[in-house]
Amino acid sequence: MGYACLRFCVFFFNILFFLSGVALCGYGIYLRVDEDDYSDICEQYSWVSAANLCIAAGALIFFIAAFGCIGAAMKSSALLGFFFFFLLLIFVLELAAGVTAFVYRTEVVDEAEICLNGTIRQARDGKGTYQDAWKNVQKEFDCCGVRGHADWEGFADHNCEDTKNDGCLDKFEDKSTEFLLIIGALCIGLTLIEILGMILSISLILKINKEKKKYSPEPKEDYGKF
Fold first, then answer.
1. What is the pTM assigned to this prediction?
2. What is the largest CA-CA distance in the chain?
């Protein structure tokens, strides 16, 4: 691949990388404005932290893409080296996060069930805050109790219709699965782009160094005086 063509490919790659950052930021903003979560009855399962993570990752991608563009424009091996390092770092972190999410995905649902059972018990015992929170969540997600109507047995004011058979835990699991699928798809796309970026950046660094060596003057030999 020619020198000019390789530089163009690095620029084009950074456009794709920048757009992937826009997608991450956009999804993070969507999660921030989307109020359909379980934070009222289980604070630790709000999507806000995930939204902040997506926005931060998108901002980091903007920063890295700038390194790649400036490095290619200035023919700077150092900036392109930083660009390669950051790409490699994000790639490793994404792999670690993906493995962690896959390993602990069932534990998240189990912990959510414990939390939901605890708060619905308090709602049945007359704690007004959780009664209102459960009514709102059941209305938003069209669900009833943790696993169904039986969770409200003996409690008349539960705001569940007879047609609602799905428990809110199932809805939580569905929403979590949907979230993980979207994040997984974004991460897969990012990793493919990052692998391409690492290959292009290393190729361009080698090309730049080769061009510099080609046009640098040969050192003159100094045999000294005898």
1. 0.68
2. 110
